[in-house]
Amino acid sequence: MPELRRDPVIGRWVIISTERAKRPNDFNIEHTDEPEMECPFCEGHEKKTPTEIFAIRKPGTKKDTPGWNVRVVPSISPKFKIEGELDRRGVGMYDVMNPIGAHEVIIESPRHLTDIYQLSELEIQDVINTSIYRISELEKDIRFKYCLLFKNHGLKAGGSKKTKHLRSQLIATPVTPTRVKEELRGSRFYFEYKERCVFCDIIRQEIETGARVIMDTKTMAAIAPFASRFPFEIWIMPKIHRADFMNMQTDEIKDLADVLKAVFAKLSKALNDPPYNYMLHTAPFRRSKRPGYWHTIEEDYHWHIEVMPRITQVAGFEWGSGFYINPTPPEEAAKYLREVML
Amino acid sequence: MGFKPHLRGEGGKKIMSQLRRDPITGRWVEVAISNPKKCDEFDMKPQVKKGGTCPFCPGNEKMTPPEIEAIRDIKTRPDTPGWTVRVVSNKFPALKIEGEIDKRGIGMFDMSNGIGAHEVIVENTDHNKDLADLTQDEISAVISKYKSRSLDLENDARFKYILLFKNHGEAAGASLEHSHTQLVALPIVPKRVKEELKGAQNYFKYRERCVFCDMIAQEQQEKERIIFENRNFIAFCPFVSRFPFEMWLLPKAHSSEFKSIDDSAIYDMAGALKEILSRLKLRLNDPAYNFIIHTGPIRDGIYEEYHWHLEIMPKLTNVAGFEWGSGLYINPTSPEITAKCLREACAAK
Asked: CB distance from A157 to chain B under 8 Å?
């Protein structure tokens, strides 16, 4: 019998097929070796990108030259422009606004690597620290309401045809995106009712039952969520309650680096380097003058990272209804990932 | 007057795009306006039909679960050739029809067993003909089956929503190439539908008008996003298109439920659907697409604030991490350009 499961945060229903469940081998991920273009993100090619915004680099080396570990540059094809005023207005019944925003690329390694697990734990910590620094810098720009950190890995996940060089992207937007609002609203609603954080409750229950846990460290946990939309969907969550990714402490950064390395190594091995997206869900920038607007966000919201392997086609049914069909129960996905030996 | 984009930002720099907000769901979309992708810039590979044994072709009726309904020659028996439109259960249903709904909690999580109906409407007998290739009368027959199945499944008290959708082409998730539409009856109202209803209700509360009726009025006034119009239906590329060549087809008369469509409206809907699908096929070399009928939940009565419609989403771009995570879509072209493109495409006779 298939099961309908409801996401406790935003109330989305998912159909989990329990019969004929799909195993990793059923997905048959194929790779065609298309030649990449000359990579603008490799060390030595610094002039091929727009001017560097920030870099962790060796003392004595100059901006836009070799000698860095992590480097942040504006996107070559930005989706949002940094200059200008917002200019909100109406056109008949419609609302429009200029797309003011920031679009940055975090180049995660000077070497031409393609997946995050190929970095060492220390290198991943540098990447995390850079992300934290850039988000807190963007927060200072009062035009921005939200900052989204995400990664497109592989062509099917929207990755570039030109180069697979390891990187993530940051987009700061002048509006809070709807998906983020839904999550904020859902977690606030839960908090009003129970006076507990819904994510803390999820972590507690998952660790108690264990069936959907992929990895559990002192401060971070990786789980296959109960109402997974996609096969092998993974959430990485801090066990210490925090609304903002930026407020992580040193030991948490260290644990996050370890978890990222292990989880992506397992995913790559289990599914033969599948295309995936991941994105950081963190609290929006808080500067609203409305009293009480962000009253409980510190308590009711909990940052986390959602990883979505793109190994099934999202068809009309899912688009139209926001109702997903997942052929792999998360319990089985978690079991496979736990058992993958690195 | 058509909408004139604001072209200059600070320091005379050209602004390449615009954020537009959907008046129903509040979703923001970034639309390229001053340097949008042109129609011929979307790579399209024509769909190739592989052929082989097809369970939906005449003569293979035994390969599908038993027929639920069909338009067929009265001298022929069910599950034999002689039909023109045929409805069967999905052989690999996402939900099962037998059993009672059993909702329960597991700790903090909620779940239910997967009760529902999952049917397939085979649109015609010819393996090589798509919906766009059928005549207006043939498409009318298909739509009348959408209606009769909706009416029939509504009698089952376990169901709350009926979703009609079509996946055309492999990239849009079609697993069988013989043209068909799917119907899913669900024991819950899906989230996307609830959001749309809530948005329409908020708009109505403030203005006492249907947001979709207002949208039709504004589109008719501005004209530049309209693709096709007949007596009962209008098709346009919505102002807040999430995807290149997104198209909406709406009945001009306010109605919240698809199932209340009458015969003359069915005929006009078929005509409009044929027109826009043929233009899309012709202009873009038969792209993969999904369409979905958005209608009110069953047994909820009639909504003054909701207006049923059909949304067509061609699959021309890959939805990437940013769109997934934020619900903020980036459209590399503008609906003004795509509507013009489709208006100018000479539709197949």
From this structure: yes
